[in-house]
């Protein structure tokens, strides 16, 4: 978890698209992609998905296009990789970065609930940290089943905000503080729901993985912590005195190099039966 990790339900939701927020979103995505936990889970999922030369790949919610470019490289010149991204600012950045890298990845406008591709036309689908922003994530998974050919594979990666951990401090106070991570997300338990959603949509689950995204143990992510603290006070989950006590405990732990702050991201790889 990085200090620019956007709060759940932030500008990454389609209905909250704001051209002025694009630089902040790009910075957030770039720092997330540098997180060792994200990199490890992505590498695992990419290996399990095993995109092959000549295949047609679809990246849903492609953001700045880093995964779309990786998929394009994996499927080669005889394959294709298309990133679907509703935010025009992020899509422009993705197109620019692909062009600069000489990468053939393509990008198009579109929504996870209504993918702009025909039935059974895709070999592999990648969808990372999209379902947490959707009020109807099951519909998005059904769309993935629609566009995948029989035998096609999908990799879903998403955060489970209920796994947020802050330590040390009074456990009840820290639980109230981290509960703010659940209040703004349309689908805060996205990570734990992936297996059930894929199974319900007719997929066969092939493998599962997870990775804790760790914040540095020597510094407090004050923008995020203060956001959570103010939310907890507004909701009546904490008093101002309890909030301030939590802040002091975290600050002291960071000075001692003893802070733990993390959230867990899960990944599932599955296939559509023949």
Helix content percent band = 40-55%
- Which sequence of SSEs, written as H and E, runs from N to C? HHEHEHEEHEHHHEHHE
* Poorly predicted residue ranges: 1-12
The backbone outline, from C-alpha atoms, is elongated
End-to-end C-alpha gap: 38 Å
The CATH first-level class of the domain at 14-161 and 185-213 and 265-271 comes to: Alpha Beta
Instruction: Tell me the name of the CATH homologous superfamily of the domain at 14-161 and 185-213 and 265-271.
Output: Vaccinia Virus protein VP39
The overall average pLDDT, rounded, is 92
Radius of gyration: 19 Å
% residues in beta strands: 15-25%
Q: What is CATH's topology name of the domain at 14-161 and 185-213 and 265-271? A: Rossmann fold
**CATH architecture identity of the domain at 14-161 and 185-213 and 265-271:** 3-Layer(aba) Sandwich
Which SSEs are present, and which pair or pack?
Layout (H helix, E strand, L loop, with lengths): L21 H13 L1 H14 L6 E5 L5 H10 L4 E5 L3 H14 L4 E3 L13 E7 L8 H11 E20 L3 H8 L1 H4 L6 H11 L3 E11 L7 H13 L5 H16 L4 E12 L3
Parallel strand pairs: 1-2, 1-4, 2-3, 4-5
Antiparallel strand pairs: 5-7, 6-7
């Amino acid at each position: 978890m990085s200090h620019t990790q956007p709060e759940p339900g932030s500008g990454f939701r389609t209905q909250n698209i704001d051209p002025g927020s694009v630089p902040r979103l790009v910075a957030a995505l770039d720092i997330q992609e540098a997180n060792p936990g994200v990199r490890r889970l992505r590498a695992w999922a990419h290996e399990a998905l095993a995109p092959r030369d000549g295949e047609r790949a679809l990246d849903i919610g492609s953001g700045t296009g880093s995964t779309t470019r990786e998929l394009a490289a994996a499927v080669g010149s005889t394959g294709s990789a298309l990133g679907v991204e509703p935010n025009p600012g992020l899509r422009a950045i993705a197109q620019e970065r692909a062009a600069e890298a000489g990468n053939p990845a393509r990008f198009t406008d579109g929504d996870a609930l209504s993918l702009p591709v025909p039935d059974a036309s895709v070999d592999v689908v990648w969808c990372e940290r999209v379902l947490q922003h959707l009020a109807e994530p099951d519909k998005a998974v059904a769309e993935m089943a629609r566009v995948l050919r029989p035998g096609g594979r999908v990799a879903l990666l998403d955060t489970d905000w209920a796994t947020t951990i802050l330590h040390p401090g009074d456990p009840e106070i820290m639980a109230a503080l981290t509960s703010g991570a659940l209040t703004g997300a349309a689908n805060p338990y996205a990570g734990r729901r992936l297996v059930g959603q894929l199974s319900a949509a007719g997929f066969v689950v092939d493998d599962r993985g997870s990775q804790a995204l760790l914040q540095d143990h020597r510094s407090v992510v004050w923008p995020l912590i203060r956001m959570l603290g103010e939310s907890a006070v507004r909701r009546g989950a904490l008093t101002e005195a309890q909030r301030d006590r939590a802040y002091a405990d975290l600050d002291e732990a960071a000075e001692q190099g003893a802070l733990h702050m993390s959230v867990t991201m899960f990944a599932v790889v599955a296939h559509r039966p023949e």
